[in-house]
Amino acid sequence: MANERILIVEDELSLLRANMDFLTDLGYEVRAASTLADARRLLREAPPDLVLLDVMLPDGSGFDFSVVVRQLSNSPVIFITALSDLKDEERGFALGGDDYLIKPYDLNRLGIRVAAILRRAMYVGSGRAEIPPLSVDPSSGLCRLDGENVVLSPMEMRLLHYFMKNPNMMIHREKVYEDVWGASALDNAQTVVEHVYRLRKKLHMTDNPDSWFRISSEKQSYMFSKIRY
């Protein structure tokens, strides 16, 4: 039986109760907040293993609050929202969201997504990867480059870990999505492009000869390699 802790941030009380009852019946420890102020307090009291985060809340935007989640924990985030526009979904993933579920949704579908995200958080990217001077440890949430800490979202960390475990291999972005996100790529492969873009910026991966590493692109595929020795 599952015993992971889930925080639900949702102001629609009937949906909040339905989600709580359903996930509790599955064996999860569930805490709930109907405002971002309450969610912030609960995050500080006991960091959850997963956050289900509505976007339109009475005291602010769940998109903005996801940044706070990243500052206070390494918890994966599933956005649950009525915003169905592709640009909203892209924004959610760009902010480090691990999944995006559009209302109304089937509770069984929610359960499948929650289980998949928690399973990935536990197994995908487990163990330390190191190609000096870069190291990443998803279990501790630490990434260091040339002795300096690099702040990455959990998904960015898993993606970097994946690349470091498969260096000098050209991998199509749909396979990257399926391996790292744990789901069929469908129309979501663009998410990989956005995450790679942010990794390049955070790790200073440029064509400058002083760069330590590069993620090169070719025909919608990527290759991670060391370029300075």
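[next item in queue]
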Amino acid sequence: MWNDLNTGAYEGMIAETIGLKGSGDDPIRAYYSRPLGNGPHPGLILIPHMPGWDEWCREAARRFTQHGYAVVCPDIYSRVGTGTPTEIAMKSREQGGQPDPQVMGDVKASLDFLKLSPETNGKVGVIGMCSGGRHAFLAACTVEGFDACVDCWGGGVFNPEGASPADHTADLSCPVLGIFGNDDQHPSPEEVDRLEALLKENNKDYTFYRYDGAGHGIWYYDKPMYRQEQAMDSWNKAQAFLDEHLKS
């Protein structure tokens, strides 16, 4: 839980950019942060959002590492090129975004990396925000080996024009925690209702938290959409959920 630490305990971490073989054996970058000492540690894959493979993602990775997680945040935009996160995200949009199968291949490469690492305990979760939340749900349904999934306001789970992550709900293989704002329109409360009904229909292990007075991106303290009370409550709920399924 936030700020629930022992001031006398040792704390240390290392964080760096590494190279992985992603989907199709393409070389991709990833941000890897992990605690020093007292291992092995649970693993976590943080899928970046549409704002890009940005500073917020790196900071979120280190924050989870401070709470005991080895975190890989793959640069799913590696093939677009290099530049500022804003520039690369814009180029990705112009190209129609990153294909789901490619992103899932990059996630699988990150999962394999964590599973094989002597620094981890063999359990790995996946988390994402915005488009990353959508990808996290899809990964939990289609990439074998996850022990927990956190979907933070992932929109586009239902696609009326073609294949969508919701189509794979029956194959969901781990518990899911969902965090949503009731003022959000992507996903809207109605879309969250549909997803919840689908999870119930398939007898899946899930917990949704929906927050009044909050819309999209409530954890992004650098943007007006940030909601301090809802953000900290949901962060602690996500932390407790991951601890339950990955640390035990």
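[queue empty]
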